[in-house]
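Re: weekly structure request thread

Next one in the queue (616 aa):
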Amino acid sequence: MHRRQTAQPGGDVLSPIRIILFIIASAGLAGGLLVPFAGLGAFQGWIFGLAAAAVLAVLLVDIVTSLLAGEIGLDIVAGLSISAALLFGETLAAGVVALMYAGGQLLEDYAANRARADMKALLARAPKTALRYDDGHLEEVAIDAIRPGDLLLIRQGDVVPVDGRVTNGRALLDMAALTGESVPVKRAEGQDVQSGAGSLDAAFDMEASKPAAESAYAGIVRLVQAAQAAKAPMVRLADRYALVFLVVTVGLAGATWFLTGNHIRMLAVLVSATPCPLILAVPVAIIAGMGKAARRGVLMKGGPVLETMARAVNLVIDKTGTLTRGRAELAGIIPAARWEPDEMLRIAASLEQASAHVTAASIVAAAQARGLALSSPQEVHETAGEGLEGRVDGHSVIVGGHDFVARRLGLPVLPRPQREAGTALAALAISGRLAGHLLLADAVRPETPLALERLRQAGIERIVLASGDSQAVVDRIGEGLGLDLLRGGLKPEQKVSIVVAERRSGVTLMVGDGVNDAPALAVADVGISMGATGSAAATESADAVLLVDDLTRLAEGLSAARRARAIAVQSVLAGLGLSFAAMLAAAFGYITVVEGALLQEAIDVAVILNALRALR
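Done, posted below.
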């Protein structure tokens, strides 16, 4: 018989007031049972009564506070039970109910804090200060003072305070708190690092790319705070039913007294009432489900998001950055002369080391993945947006667009090999002759087929690919993925129309990462942003964020949501069924007052432990 409490982020694991209340109730009941052995049996009732009265005084304050806040606290049932027991001289029963109530309050604290542990851990990791270089000296500053371009020192054991990139040294990062990944992630000089990651190795320097308020971890903290403040629909439903439960309990107790004239039976009915399945099991299960999803890298903005996700049957998904990596990668090598493909790639990647262009990085990464030994480029000159030229191992090398390479070779035009829709060509010239082409494409993520299969297993019945790319590109990407509908060439408003149409047949999720996805994310039943690479607009419009760019995590989050909701419903139905059975048994005289109090607490414990299964 407990009133739902709003847990504060970072609060104590157990409330000191509730601990004191439990000690008083325990001492009172134990003392009352022991005094007859000391020849002080005449004081037994007083000891039981005083302990129960102390608990009742705190309980009445809680009840008044709830009523003033416009909430019908179900602690009213506990207050009526203890008051009636004291009024009728049933001090032992009053002491037992007081102990059960105080113990239940501690159990509620434990369950709620256990369920929130994963999200509270994310908040606790948020750094407050950072070490910043200032004229060659280090100073400790508040992270709010950090600006893009500031040079920071990240020591072993530090949490990266803002988003940035490594400028000196090598980073070995613990991403487990953010993404659930147990394997440390390496970041070399020039590579990006995400705020919130923990440094596991030697110190390194990094340049801040965003202020603290706009960094990834700050967004995560805001999401967690919103999630803790939001009240799930099932919890709001429980609040509405609280008055109904109270009326039924008091009505049954009054009817029992009126029909039997036995106030003890009436009292037994009151102490057997257990509203916990409504007011405690539901939030515990929902919060536990959110915590489990957060451990796997799926952060939801509140309980309503989890409940809606649990009922989802349709999924609308963008292509770029979701099904694909969102950047051009080497898809093939087409020789035009005597050069071997691997040697072509090695020479091109050696030259591209001098460029900061994203395509250059992809070519270098492809060469490194094949274990090719790259040479140092010399006499490099880059024409922004067109190409790169220089010398590698004594060869003059040109890499870039067809027009750029043709001009440098003094040719009117270069032959173009056939290619699939959605792919791009980079021409490569070595020693004054066309050596061939590098084929670049935004490739499907290797985990995409498995992710889509797991989403089907998690209950998604229909998957629609909606992209702004051409229909030919969408058809190529969607081929073999088993999608239900492929739509390309869409403007943002057309994506919105598709989401609205899908919602007519069931609860619909939308996954995207770009600015053009934000409107569709906003109109979906649940909008989900690819947070690691997604735009700020998409993240703000979304209801949930994938902290790691892996759609298999969405399937895991969806499964966690369905399981948490099922456990919440199960707890309510089983708990209320047992409660009404106990009340009826008490009304017919089969349960005494003390037995009713003990049975009520047993039902509480069973329901709460069942709700905590959502953590597993």
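Residues 551-587 form the longest helix (37 residues). Confidence is low (pLDDT under 50) at residues 1-12.
Next request, please.
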